[in-house]
Write a structure and sequence with these properties.
The protein is 46% helix and 22% strand. The protein is of the alpha/beta class. Strands 3-6-7-2-8 form a 5-stranded parallel β-sheet, sandwiched between helices. The chain has a 3-stranded antiparallel β-sheet with strand order 1-10-9, with no helix packed on it. Strands 4-5 form a two-stranded antiparallel sheet. A hairpin with a 3-residue loop joins β4 and β5.
Length: 383
Amino acid sequence: MAISLIPNFRFSASVIDNGKLSVANGLRGRAVQAFADRLYLSDGGAFLITGYRGVGKTTFVQDALKCLKENLKAESKEGGERVLLDVCINIARPITGVELMHGILRQLYSRLGELQLLRRLPKPLHSQIKLAFLRTSAMLAFKNSEESEAGISIEKWLSFSSKITHGYSRDLNYLAYDERSAENDLIALAQKLSHGFTPRGPYGLPQPFAHPLRLKLLFVFDELDKIDEAKGSIASLTEILQTLKTLFTTSGISFIFVAGRSLHERWLQDVQRGDSVFESVFSESRYLPAVWNQVDDLCDPFLANIRQLSDYDRQLYTDFKRHLAFTGRGIPRRIIRGFHERVRWDGECATLALSENDRRQMRFHAELYQLLSQSEAQVLGEN
């Protein structure tokens, strides 16, 4: 049996809303909107998003950022202009406090350039942030020297000698920019960007009567599992949080930390001691559970026309989705991968190939999934 898929079907490793599917609906959608509202009303602070690997933490954050952009756009219509300045940082190894502060400043400068906001900054503010960016950069000094020497001597016979010497050196230096100086500059820059400024117009011309422009600064630290799994990760992650602790309350920058289940367990264990850096910096923590009841939302949008399926094909497709729900363990990435394994290409058309030989296995998992669902309803009640 082959079920036709949508013409623009593409394999996807995640469940990001690309016009075909989204996991931001139902209870999850309300959680995304609630988190976006929390970000919108927060003046700085830090947020911890944890969950099982592959449950969709990054997708959850990206959906929340989309909602946040819509909230800021609605506010811009009422007066003034609000723009989200979101920066995603992946830390693949333990780093020092100086490297962290320098990295944040460099990412901030680069993101301003990507959003075409650097040219809209007032000249004093533009010069200040450019100087901070240059102070995080290395300076190379090259030195070349060349000497030549020649001589002629006439004694018993004629002799000639020549000597050429070349010299070369390279120095790598940083401007004096320690962790505390970079932090103070970052706080000052963030406050000026978030409190509002009069933007420059085209060609850098001032606009004295223009509405003020205010930026919502948001840094997303994704894939903290890499730090969490590295050797000596506990000390490294704790030092990162302690380094950023001052920025949580004084800069107006919001931070989102995305990590796995192990960090959530460490956070719960550490806060019980009463003196925890996790407790003092996170303004909110959210644990994302597995998505057990959204297999239809993940699979149905891929089908070209689900209403035209025959009764037999519809039943086989229903068993296939229950099979994915059981084997996927509620992890969207596992469900999508199981769906992709059944996709076959016929020229430029993609079809979902479900053979009769696989029906026995699908039916077995489908019955198990239905039994678990009924048992859950009996124990916990209907939603």
